[in-house]
Amino acid sequence: MPCYAIDGVIPVVHPSAHVHPTAVLIGDVHIGAGAYIGPNASLRGDFGRIVIEEGANVQDCCVLHGFPQNVCRVARDGHVGHGAILHGCTVGQGALVGMNAVLMDEVVLGEFAIVAAHAFVPAGRELPARHLIVGSPAKVLRPLSEQEIAWKAEGTATYQELTRRCLASLREVQPLPKAEAQRPELPSFDVAPKLHLNKPVD
């Protein structure tokens, strides 16, 4: 993986984590046990520390950057969707940041909260646990149901399993000119039904 020291500070990656070879880690970055860092993610700890705790995932094309004298943290079992940007903020335990959402400096996202896709959270906001946050600028829409929290946990568990799959079998190869006659199939997964988070809870 592209991994760079700056000012003598070297990234730290737990052996049970998976960091895709195209992800970039710079400086004061800490990747915890069982964490997943997706393709083309950029974690730049050249001003402030970045911490990805145990079982958390940071998906494809995400950007995480630390603010000086601050920590950008994704807590245990946190879930950061494709293309999200986190700048000097904290994502609480079990929380989810939707695809292409932006969390600015000193934002604190409460435990098991969900930030919807494309939301923009201005600097300094404290967002409550177990609530749905939507919009640009973001607002707290409503509490989450237990079903929605369980749905998020199942999605995170799928990424934790993906970490194990990548450690076991991901390797760089040359593409085939055509598919094999007995092409292997990907394993099947029990996927939670899709929830429409913008709809009110009954």
* CATH hierarchy class name: Mainly Beta
Silhouette: globular
Q: The CATH topology is what? A: UDP N-Acetylglucosamine Acyltransferase, domain 1
CATH superfamily: Hexapeptide repeat proteins
Q: Give average pLDDT, whole number.
A: 93
Rounded to the nearest angstrom, the radius of gyration is 17 Å
Architecture in CATH?
3 Solenoid
| Share of residues in strands | 25-35%
Q: What is the H/E string?
A: EEEEEEEEEEEEEEEEEEEEH
For the biggest sheet, the summary is:
12 strands, parallel
- Domains (count): 1
Q: How many β-strand stretches? A: 20
Overall structural class, as computed from helix and strand content, comes to mainly beta
Discrete helix count: 1
Alpha carbon gap, first and last residue? 46 Å
Q: Which segments are poorly predicted (pLDDT under 50) over 5 or more consecutive residues?
A: none
Query: How much helix, percentage-wise, in residues?
Result: 10-25%
Notable characteristics:
single chain, 202 residues, mainly beta, UDP N-Acetylglucosamine Acyltransferase, domain 1, 1 helix, 20 strands, Phenylacetic acid degradation protein, Transf_Hexapept/Carb_Anhydrase, Hexapep
What's a quick, concise take on this entry?
This is Phenylacetic acid degradation protein. The chain is mainly beta.
